[in-house]
Amino acid sequence: MIRIQKADEVEEEFFCTRNFGESIESVRDILRNVKLRKDEALREYSKKFDLASPYNLKIPEETLKTAAEKMQSENPKLYDSLCYSRDLAVRFAKRQRESFDDFEIELEPGIFTGQKNIPVEKAGLYVPAGRFPLVSTVVMTSSPAIAAGVNEIILCTPPRKNPDGSGKPYADENIMAASYICGIKEVFACGGSQAIAAMAFGTESIPAVDVIVGPGNKYVAEAKRLVYGTVGIDMIAGPTEVFIIADKTANPVWVAADLLAQAEHDVVAQPVMATDSMELAEKVSKEIEKQLESLPTKATAEQSINTFGRIIVTENLEQAAELANKKAPEHLELALDSSLEREKIQSLVHNYGSLFIGHGAAEVFGDYAAGLNHTLPTSGSARFTGGLSVRSFIKTVTTLRTDNTKSGAKKSAESAGYLGDAEGLAAHAKAARLRLE
């Protein structure tokens, strides 16, 4: 049963970064081995860790197309839903891209400074396929890369046994279909930390990329941490979490369902609600138990609810907002009825991955089909970063152009000379003063 506690009873550890990492030595060994032995190492790890070990890694585009056509024929509602999700995600990402303006401005006479936003050349997407193959992650990782204008996009996902009995590369059918729907042609049957190593260092089959994005288990997360610097990464993702601020008008059935939607992800997922109504807290607690009984994912969700879930009863909603800012959750819901109340609390909260405003804005919409990206910061990292977006695939670089006949350029050269002297960097000072001659 979910714990109910008052705000002053919340222990400080609740707000600390949650670390579920294992010893990193095994991941270090995998990275070193892939960097050294490339495809040979990937095949060995596939045989050891995955359900299949294909002799080739790249899945033919025709196989992706066949999977998409099969989905369209056998499961048209899923096919149409994926297309709808893709369309919304790309539209939203393109709108984000429009906010990146290149400019050049004359700060001082003869000093022209500027900014350019350039997409990376190659992006690597990782899509998990464990207990729950994350078909929606294909949409969420590829859409901002496409909108950013990335030239080459590759996708890695764990291998599956080919149904024709051959050793030809194969993966989860829905993930292959989604890849084709999203226009991703370079898909590799390679999973785990070895896939991260392959995209970071390159092998005979899998090209090295500039940026790696996408969720994964703790080994994938640790591999991304270790290769950062060789490549860029989106973030180090931890267990999922939701924080719901609710008042007495909230529907306990909906709130319970939203908490369980996070809880079923993982036994260490963290579903949390803060409310100023003890009556609502008790109703939600009972509703969680009721819904759990018929939930196919009960075993996972129940363990998450019992171990990491909680309902915090606050003195008022402002206190709930303070707790949310301190927690900096991945998802933050405002299940509040009054528009004035929503606006007030919305103005108070500022640490979250995505904000869902009002009773009807279910967090699962953001997961699947509302245009937002569901790859978001966890474990308090929303204090300093946002979620996956076109920004993850774009470099903002600066430019300088001068007219050395003008006063601003001359003053810049003089100042640079004095600063070079002050730092003891004579060549710096000379390079500046030569421009004055």
Structural class: alpha/beta
Beta-strand percent range? 15-25%
Number of strands: 15
For the biggest β-sheet, the strand order reads 1-12-11-10-13-14
Number of helices: 16
Polypeptide structure, described:
The protein has 437 residues and is of the alpha/beta class. Helix content is 44%, strand content 17%. It has 16 helices and 15 strands. It has helices spanning 25-37, 39-49, 61-74, 76-98, 135-148, 173-181, 192-201, 218-227, 252-263, 278-292, 298-308, 317-327, 339-348, 363-368, 407-422, 426-433; strands at residues 3-6, 58-59, 103-108, 111-119, 122-126, 152-157, 186-189, 211-213, 232-233, 241-246, 270-275, 310-313, 331-335, 354-357, 394-402. It has a 6-stranded parallel sheet with strand order 1-12-11-10-13-14, sandwiched between helices. It has a 6-stranded mixed sheet with strand order 2-7-6-5-8-9, with helices on both faces. A 3-stranded antiparallel sheet has the order 3-4-15. The chain is globular, with a radius of gyration of 25 Å.
